[in-house]
Specification:
Elements (H helix, E strand, L loop, with lengths): L6 E4 L3 H12 L4 E4 L11 E5 L2 E4 L9 H6 L9 E3 L4 E3 L7 E2 L10 H25 L11 H15 L3 H10 L4 H8 L3 H12 L11 H12 L9 E2 L3 H14 L3 E3 L4 E7 L2 E7 L4 E3 L2 E4 L3 H9 L6 H9 L6 E8 L16 E4 L3 H12 L8 E5 L14 E8 L13 H15 L7 E7 L1 H8 L35 E3 L13 H13 L2
Parallel strand pairs: 1-2, 1-13, 2-9, 6-15, 13-19
Antiparallel strand pairs: 3-4, 5-8, 6-7, 10-11, 11-12, 14-17, 14-18, 15-16, 16-17
Helix pairs in contact: 1-9, 1-15, 3-4, 3-8, 6-7, 7-12
């Protein structure tokens, strides 16, 4: 039978779009099939109340400038409402701390002296990992020269740090963020805010081993040359994914929204296409999945096409969401205690100490949400008024920690949790509750239902030592190809991990071109 396409991509999240655009640019006949009505996945912008729009993923800071340029996204309409957004660590008493290097002196003179040196060294150490995040992870124990060279390159990058930094990298890489920060700083507010970034995407608090590695990986992507820093595209994150959609279609890819893939077709142990929800079969020798690994292998492909050991690995891949998202439609600007209005153009973190953050991560271990959540807050309308009706505002908050599998179940608990979150915000910004016109709370269960990622984890698979690099998401599928010929992964669970990075999509496209078509 004649193939309808060279490549079918399941899902138009930003990674599926990057992969599709790059393959189409190389002359492949590409179809991108998206189950929901819009493209972008968690990196889209949606209207959550009449006239009020928000992005689930609200800050762009990990996507390499080179990828934005290679895809011509600015020519496709990508604009930034803000770049290099500053961060303020909020304190409940109003003694906030700007994380700008010259402002940390307010915390303590000792921290003021230590902070620039620590940041510079940490960025240098992270830089040694950076080349590894822009390349497929090498396979271990093979005789292939490409794998040997990739491992040698990694060793060389670390060696190039010089003896002192190399020793420091090896000392800290397996450590927990808590001990590292205790060794370097005294201000609880500063340590709490830095630990927040170290643990984002993990399911473990700052005392857990491996949280320095999570932080190094984030820093490596964030501080790459030419990057935007914390940025907000015009139109929210959907401004990025709309530009990506245009880049894919301009290159010749077809994008079908509102079309769910029900099954991946296999014949003689190789992929032959997909079956859509409508029952229609579409044929292609290559299928790339932007869906998470459990959905891809267990639901869409079916374990009968895989060996038992591989199925067990997929089953064991941890993807337990503990992050929720809150969007508020406000009829006026929130007034945080003792905080200047201009700080609202940046990012606000509420993680006032490492102990506070550790306790927030404790709750999900027992099937509970934290009564004292840690928050990452933005007010996107400060930089981009088009996101709300004139004079009104949107507050967007990432919330740690609320487990997908809440012991009491979300159905009967969501309203109370929402009230708790509004109370917490009211304590930080008195009068806020009175200005709320509409609320959208997305628990990890809601995120799972909306974006179709099993477990509701925002990165499809937890960011953890044992789920990084050569083993992300699982051994046997860490280089984008999978055990089934013609089936590839490109989503957040593949290397270099979650977040709006796009490198997964680019590297998956590279793997497809190298192996399959
Ligand atoms: C609450 C929250 C806040 C976040 N904040 C940030 C942030 O500020 N900065 C940042 O960098 N990252 C953030 N992230 C993480 C980031 O959004 C994700 O890691 C990233 O968007 C994942 O992209 P993806 O393309 O791999 O997958 P997704 O965005 O999950 O897209 C997968 C797509 O596949 C589609 N799909 C799945 N199954 C099928 C099927 N069977 N048929 C057809 N289509 C299918 C889905 O509908 C979806 O559109 C956040 C995530 C969440 C949830």
């Amino acid at each position: 039978m004649q193939a309808h396409f060279d490549v079918i991509i399941i899902g138009a999240g930003h990674n599926g779009l990057v992969c599709g655009a790059l393959l189409a640019k190389r002359g492949k006949r590409v179809l991108i099939v998206e189950g929901s009505a819009a493209t972008g996945g968690a990196a889209g912008t949606h209207e959550f109340a009449p006239g009020f729009r928000a992005s689930t993923a609200h800050l762009l800071h990990l996507m390499p400038r080179a990828l934005i340029t290679a895809l011509g996204l600015e020519q496709q309409g990508l604009r930034f409402a803000a770049t290099r957004m500053p961060t303020t660590a909020l304190s409940a008493e109003g003694n906030h701390l700007s994380l700008a290097a010259d402002a940390v002196a307010a915390a303590s003179p000792a921290d003021a002296a230590a902070y620039p040196a620590f940041t510079a060294r940490f960025t240098r150490l992270a830089g040694a990992l950076r080349p590894m995040l822009g390349a497929p992870p090498p396979r271990l124990g093979t005789d292939a020269w490409s794998d040997r060279i990739a491992l040698l390159k990694l060793g060389w990058q670390v060696r190039r740090l010089g003896r002192r930094d190399m020793r420091e990298l090896l000392r800290i890489i397996g450590m927990n963020a808590y001990d590292l920060l205790e060794d370097n700083f005294s201000s609880p507010l500063l340590k709490g805010a830095l630990a927040f970034d170290a643990t984002l995407g993990a399911n473990l608090g700052p005392r857990a081993p491996g949280t320095v590695l999570t932080w190094l990986m984030r820093q490596a992507l964030e501080s790459a040359d030419g990057n935007t820093g914390l940025a907000q595209p015009v139109g929210g994150m959907g401004g990025l994914t709309d530009a990506l959609t245009r880049a894919a279609t301009a290159a010749g890819a077809e994008v079908r929204t509102g079309t769910r893939v029900e099954r991946v077709l296999v014949a003689d142990d190789r992929v032959t296409g997909v079956v859509l929800g409508s029952g229609e079969s579409l044929l292609a020798p290559v299928v790339v999945s932007n869906a998470d690994p459990k959905t891809t292998f267990l639901d869409l492909l079916g374990p009968e096409h895989l060996d038992t050991g591989f199925v067990r690995k997929v089953d064991h891949c941890r993807a337990r969401g503990v992050t929720a998202k809150l969007h508020l439609a406000l009829d006026r600007l929130p007034a945080f205690l003792n905080l200047s209005q201009s700080a609202l153009k940046g990012r606000l973190l509420f993680s006032p100490s490492m102990a506070y953050l550790e306790r927030a991560f404790d709750a999900p271990k027992y099937g509970e949400h934290s009564a004292e959540p840690a928050l990452e807050i933005t007010v996107p309308t400060m930089n981009d008024p088009t996101l709300a009706p004139s004079g009104q505002h949107v507050l967007s908050a990432v919330i740690e920690c609320a487990p997908r599998d809440l012991r009491a179940g979300w159905d009967g608990s969501k309203d109370a949790y929402q009230a708790l979150l509004l109370d917490r915000l009211e304590a930080l910004a008195p009068g806020l509750k009175e200005s709320v016109r509409a609320v959208e709370l997305l628990t990890p269960l809601d995120l799972e239902r909306r974006y179709g990622n099993r477990g509701g984890h925002w990165h499809h698979a937890e960011l953890a030592f044992d789920q990084f690099l050569f083993v992300r998401p699982v051994p046997g599928a860490a280089q984008y190809a999978t055990p089934v010929q013609g089936l590839f992964l490109c989503g957040a669970a593949s290397h270099p991990g979650g977040g709006v990075v796009g490198e997964n999509g680019r590297l998956a496209a590279q793997a497809v071109l190298a192996k399959a078509v």
